[in-house]
Write a structure and sequence with these properties.
- The protein is built from 14 helices and nine strands.
- The protein is of the alpha/beta class.
- The strands form two sheets. Strands 3-2-1-4-5-6 form a six-stranded parallel sheet, with helices on both faces.
- Helix 8 links the parallel strand 8 and strand 9.
- Helix 9 packs across helix 11, helix 9 packs across helix 12 and helix 9 crosses helix 13.
- The longest helix has 29 residues.
- It starts with 6 loop residues before the first strand and ends in a 5-residue tail after the last helix.
Length: 296
């Protein structure tokens, strides 16, 4: 019999599916629930167990992991008679790996404590490739003892795992992460258009730029997206738009000015308004091309 904790996984999207599969490969028993039947089929094909509801998935789990798009979805799966908190056993550990507002995480932890359920907020960075390769960066908020208990699970999913502080701290750091990523993608997109308009060999230019101070994980991960105009979603513009709302609201609450971030947030919103919300966030290149007079 395995001594590993049993895991319930709620949300099997672009990130959730490969992450749950990495746990299965590591020997964890994973019971999953999601709204898309084909994703449940994928889970069972990988060796997991499909559940017909949140309540069914979490009832016997030691660890419950939620990976859904935003705060409303976290609240929908956590609360109510069929939700996590009403059906999890006392002592279970709920790890929310969604990217949501810090306040939602703080409120969830407080509500869970009344039910005897422990909570960590543990959003991730690294995109679909990072999820598949199990090299995600995981930023965690919550109690140290709960973090220590969850370390083996986190170690199966990511490479950089850091407790950032109390409940909500993980989400605050993730908001900062999304600010940096969006600004970085925007800068890369502008550089690509500038280089192409100047007649430079774009492949050569991006290679040399990525070897110097301008290099970044964003450029490494997204270089082929720019070169091939391949904007199949790894992380959708719609989700980055949501995240930019989180960081701008949180910054306003603490009195932090984000002048560049505010501009990029508007550019992301504009890209979404032009119908590109379902594309990868590297599609910010399309916005720069439009501003430069190209038809895309």
């Amino acid at each position: 019999m395995s001594t590993l904790p049993t895991i319930a996984w709620i949300g099997l999207g672009i990130m959730g599916s490969p992450m749950s599969e990495n746990l299965i490969k590591a020997g964890y028993h994973v019971t999953g629930h999601t709204l898309e039947p084909e994703k449940l089929d994928r889970l069972t094909a990988a060796g997991g167990t499909a559940a017909g509801s949140v309540a069914e998935a979490v009832r016997d789990a030691d660890v419950i992991i939620t990976m859904v798009p935003a705060s409303p979805q976290v609240e929908a799966v956590a609360y109510g008679p069929d939700g996590v908190l009403e059906n999890a056993r006392p002592g279970a550990l709920l790890i929310d790996m969604s990217s949501i507002t810090p306040r939602t995480s703080v409120d969830l932890a407080a509500a869970a404590k009344e039910k005897g359920v422990r909570v960590l907020d543990a959003p991730v960075s690294g995109g679909e490739a990072g999820a598949v390769e199990a090299v995600l960066s995981i930023m965690v908020g919550g109690e140290q003892a709960d973090f220590d208990e969850a370390r083996p699970v986190f170690g199966t999913l990511g490479r950089t795992v850091v407790r950032c502080g109390p409940h909500g701290a993980g989400q605050t750091v993730k908001a900062a992460n999304q600010l940096i990523v969006a600004v970085n993608i925007q800068a890369c997109a502008e550089a690509v258009v500038f280089l192409e308009r100047s007649g430079v060999d774009l492949t050569a230019a991006l290679d040399v730029l990525n070897g110097g101070l301008a290099g970044s994980t964003v450029l490494t991960r997204k270089k082929d997206n720019f070169l091939n105009r391949d904007f199949r979603p790894g992380f959708r513009v719609d989700l980055h738009h949501k995240d930019m709302g989180i960081v701008t609201d949180a910054a306003r609450a603490v009195g932090a000015a984000l002048p560049v971030g505010a501009v990029v947030a508007q550019l992301v919103a504009s890209l979404r308004a032009q119908g590109d919300g379902g594309l990868d966030h590297s599609a910010l290149l399309r916005a720069v091309e439009r501003l430069s007079g190209a038809r895309v």
